[in-house]
Amino acid sequence: MSTNPFEDESAGYVVLMNDEDQHSIWPDKLDLPTGWRRAFGVGSRAECLAYIKANWTDIRPASIRTTS
Question: Which residue ranges does the record assign to the MbtH-like domain (predicted)?
């Protein structure tokens, strides 16, 4: 059985961010999806999740935050 690349504790990960400032954890061995850029990493899954927790404090999309 293969391991889910998004839940492999021994793999390297990066944190991605899109134009709406939304964040996502992503396996470092996979190509970045269109519309996303690297914000942090390579780090462990735990380090990337900690980065997201510390830096994505307002989960509303940027387009909504600017109109509020």
Answer: 4-54
Listed residue (27, 9, 15, 26) closest to 56, CA to CA: 15
The answer to whether the CB of 19 falls within 8 A of the CB of 31 is: no
Q: How far apart are CA 18 and CA 21, in angstroms?
A: 5
Burial of 35: CB neighbours in 10 Å, binned 0-12, 13-18, 19+: exposed
For residues 19 and 56, the answer to whether their CB atoms sit within 8 Å is no
Per-residue pLDDT of the chain (68 residues; tens, 9 = 90+): 567 888 888 999 999 999 999 999 999 999 999 999 999 999 999 999 999 999 999 989 999 987 65
